Amino acid sequence: MNKKRTRNIGKTKYAIFIHLAALLMLVSNFEAVAKVTSKSTKGVNVSLTRNELTPEVAIYTPAPITHETDSANPKKSNVFTAVEEMPKYPGGDQELLKYLAANLKYPIEAQQNKIEGKVYIRFIVTEDGDIDKATVMKSLNKECDEEALRVIKGMPKWEPGKQNGVNASVYYVIPFHFSLNKNKTITTENTLAKNGAPEEPYPYTTVQEKPRFPGGEYALMQLIFKNLKYPIISRENGVKGKVYVRFTITEDGTVKNPKIIRPLDDFCNQEVIRIIRIIPKWIPGKQNGVNVPVYIDLPITFEIN
User: Fold this and answer.
1) Is 132 left (phi over 0), alpha (psi -120 to 50) or beta?
2) Are residues 246 and 288 in the same domain?
3) Which of 31, 44, 262, 285 could form a disulfide linkage to 207, CB 3.0–4.6 angstroms apart?
4) Model confidence over 124-136: pLDDT tens digits?
5) Cα dist. 193→2, 196, 204, 259 in Å?
6) What's the CA gap between 187 and 30, in Å, rounded?
7) CB atoms within 10 A of CB 80
8) Domain count of the chain?
9) Cα–Cα distance measured from residue 53 to residue 119, given in angstroms and rounded to the nearest whole number
């Protein structure tokens, strides 16, 4: 019986569809930085920068797709972390940055107690664009947590995300950085500097010039389609669906740090990682005319026809 099943499946035609998510981000992230720059009576200076989640807190990232039951509104039961069109703040990224800069305040008690660090807030942008279920993913202290939540809950409606052309609820994460150290700055070039010594920059999620595969998207699809293998054990067990992989295109175009952000099964996951690791150099992305590291999210669909 098993041999017959294997033989029949072996004759089944299957297709592997590759969908490029060149718009990059599974969960778009901004870092809002409340920084005390001096002891003057002018109060808190709030600066902002785009940053990706650091590896240290990546374990807090929600599951790729969850199916939460909301008895009050069943329409909001499916919450994605990856969609074809991510939610957008009205007016775009710069307007979001302006909103955060204008509204984030460093709690006085936290300043007095020299509390500094990051608060990570996760929330849902619903199908209607509403902000829902804002929660603290990584806490700093009560006052800073409450301030970050206050700012998130006060945001206006967003343009909702879309999946297959339909509005979808999507998780979004924003880290808030409360810093008292006047020697610690975050530059507009997305590079963290401590005491004048710049660290390796975080990858961007959006840039003025996106990374490009030599020959374009079609050439990338050809390369992946030619080399990607549908694991036999996955086919025989009827495993099908999407694997989302995230990787970095470095300043010199190298493909680095592939990571599964939405798994399927171990065999398909491993095959996707193998493929990403053999991809040659890209034309790097640019911000303000300078090569910068950029995140790429790539969904690969395994489907048996």
Assistant:
1) beta
2) yes
3) 285
4) 999 999 999 999 9
5) 61, 6, 16, 26
6) 14
7) 21
8) 2
9) 11
Clarify whether residues 154 and 189 are in a common domain: yes
Phi, psi of 31 (to 5 degrees): -115, 120
Instruction: Tell me the CA distances in angstroms from 30 to 104, 127, 152, 204, one per residue in order.
Output: 13, 21, 12, 10
Round to whole Å and give the CA distance between 181 and 197: 14
Question: Is 203 among the domain residues?
Answer: no
Rounded Cα distance, 184 and 181, in Å: 5
Query: Is 110 domain-assigned?
Result: yes
Round to whole Å and give the CA distance between 183 and 294.
Answer: 27
pTM of the model: 0.45
Give the integer Cα–Cα distance in Å for 247 and 299: 11
End-to-end CA distance of the chain: 22
Residues 250 and 166 in one domain: no
Which are the contacts of 173, defined by CB distance < 8 A and separation ≥ 6? Answer: 27, 29, 53, 61, 120, 121, 122, 137
The model's pLDDT over 123-167, given as tens digits with 9 standing for 90+, comes to 999 999 999 999 998 888 999 999 999 999 999 999 998 888 899
Domain range for 186 is 31-198
Q: How far apart are CA 246 and CA 260, in angstroms?
A: 6
Sheet (strand 14-18) strand order = 14-18, 294-304, 241-249, 255-262
183 in the same domain as 94: yes
